[in-house]
Amino acid sequence: MKLLLIEDDQRLADFLVRGLLAEGYNIERISRIDAAMPLIRSSEPDVVILDRLLEDGDGLQVCRDIRNMNLPCKILMLSALAEVDDRILGLRTGADDYLGKPFHFEELLARIESLAQRTGQREQDVVLKLKDLQLNLAKQEVRRQEQAIEMTAKELRILEMLMRNQGRVLSRERILSHVWGVLEDPMTNIVDVYMARLRRKIDDGFDEKLIKTRRGLGYVIGD
């Protein structure tokens, strides 16, 4: 997925670029409004991460320009202006989501993932596949070797997250943030419990085990 970060705080921008690159995203960064629209038109990012208070103006103008031109990218607005009225203004101007500063990096990742899933599923993405495992998102059905597997809503969310990130280790914190909306460690083993359930349903009875634990790091599928 292609991201464009429009942020003039150099320290924050460097941190976000490093972190998002490490998560496997293709990301470009600029700091000024006047450079935004030409780059958005040429690079066609999937998600624009847009600061409100930029050195040469208000990021709301970029938001208006994107919507006036009917460009398909999603907009995640960042701002120290985080009061209810500010968030409402940003959303009414055309932002798809609004995140107040300061924020947790895990929450930013969860917001980006959520926006990516709302960009409109391509036909080939309606069914996620890994070897003999299939997850039909439209029907919320899971099959392995054409055998139907019953899943709870939470299990489906975790499996979808894993399958959208095949080969990438997902930390317990990321899974907590994405599936439960928890941004701090709840001091429970809820993720491990659900992963054990998911592993029994997906892997038990099959020769090839798809879900693996990376000790001290998290979980991965398809590695």
From TrEMBL:
GO terms for biological process: regulation of DNA-templated transcription. One of its GO terms (cellular component) is protein-DNA complex. The keyword Transcription applies. Residues 128-155 form a coiled coil. Residues 125-223 bind DNA. Residues 125-223 form the OmpR/PhoB-type domain. SMART domains: REC, Trans_reg_C. PANTHER family: REGULATOR OF RPOS (PTHR48111:SF22). This is Transcriptional regulator.
